[in-house]
C-alpha cells in the first residue's frame, strides 16, 4: 500500500473511502448527546413510535450523509434551500455538483465514483417514498 487509500489493485481506494465513512459515522453517533440523536429518527417512527428495519436504514443514511458533508441533518443557520440536508443533497446531486458537498475537513478526497455511490446509497436510505 502506497498510502492509506491507494493500493495496486483496482477498486480498493473506493473500498477504503467506504471504511473511512463508516468509521466517521460511528464516531459521530458516539459524540452526540441523546437529545440530538432524535434527528436521525425515521419519519415513520416519529409518526407511529414503532421501530423496524427501515428505521435503521433511514438512520444509517442520515448518519452517512452527515459523515460525507460534515453538516447536520437540519441547520436553520443556512439559507432556506440548504436547511434540510437531504433536500439540499438531492438538489446538488441532481445538478451534478456532488464534488461540492464533501466536508472540507476530510483529508483525502474520495474518488468521484466512490463519492457518487456513497451519496446515492445514502439518499436511497433516506428516501421516505420507499417506506
Description of the structure:
Mean pLDDT is 75; it is low at 1-13. The chain has a single domain (12-130), classed as Transferase(Phosphotransferase) domain 1 (Transferase(Phosphotransferase), domain 1, Orthogonal Bundle), CATH 1.10.510.10. 21% of the residues are buried. The chain is globular. The protein has helices spanning 12-31, 43-48, 53-69, 85-94, 112-125. It has 131 residues and is an all-alpha fold. It has five helices and no strands. Pfam families: PK_Tyr_Ser-Thr. This is non-specific serine/threonine protein kinase. Residues 1-131 form the Protein kinase domain.
How do the helices and strands line up, and which of them pair or pack?
Blueprint: H1 12-31, H2 43-48, H3 53-69, H4 85-94, H5 112-125
Properties at a glance:
5 helices, mainly alpha, 131 residues, globular, Transferase(Phosphotransferase), domain 1, disordered N terminus
Provide a concise account of the structure shown.
The protein is mainly α. The chain is built from 5 helices and no strands. The protein has a single domain (12-130), classed as Transferase(Phosphotransferase) domain 1 (Transferase(Phosphotransferase), domain 1).
Amino acid at each position: 500500500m502506497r498510502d492509506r487509500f491507494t493500493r495496486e489493485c483496482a477498486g480498493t481506494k473506493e473500498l477504503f473511502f467506504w471504511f473511512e465513512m463508516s468509521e466517521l459515522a460511528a464516531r459521530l453517533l458516539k459524540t452526540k448527546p441523546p437529545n440530538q440523536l432524535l434527528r436521525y429518527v425515521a419519519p415513520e417512527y416519529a409518526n407511529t413510535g414503532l421501530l423496524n428495519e427501515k428505521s435503521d436504514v433511514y438512520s444509517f443514511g442520515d448518519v452517512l450523509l452527515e459523515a460525507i458533508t460534515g453538516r447536520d441533518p437540519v441547520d436553520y443557520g443556512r439559507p432556506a434551500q440548504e436547511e434540510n440536508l437531504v433536500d439540499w443533497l438531492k438538489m446538488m446531486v441532481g445538478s451534478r455538483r456532488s464534488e461540492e458537498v464533501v466536508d472540507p475537513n476530510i483529508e483525502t478526497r474520495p474518488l468521484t465514483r466512490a463519492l457518487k455511490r456513497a451519496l446515492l446509497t445514502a439518499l436511497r436510505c433516506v428516501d421516505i417514498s420507499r417506506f
